Amino acid sequence: MTPAVPEASLTALMQFLAEMALLCMGGQNPMTKEPLPANPAMARFYVDLLNVLKEKTGGSRTEAETAQLEEILYQLRMRVMDLQPAAPKS
Length: 90
Description:
This protein is an all-alpha fold.
């Protein structure tokens, strides 16, 4: 049985980019269920893409889409900060 394909929408695009960011933060391979190595640069790239999406769609999002995008960006930014290497101690 083939899984249903979701409807193409702004919400679907936001969720896709968020999932890609999470995978790059050291998530789990959806096919093998094995852990993936973290790639902070790519994780930040996907977060930056979401921010571009926010900037470019500012006047055409619904309130619900705006709230969802803000929450996604907030949560991902908090996780990306955890990926940054600790500052060297003096």
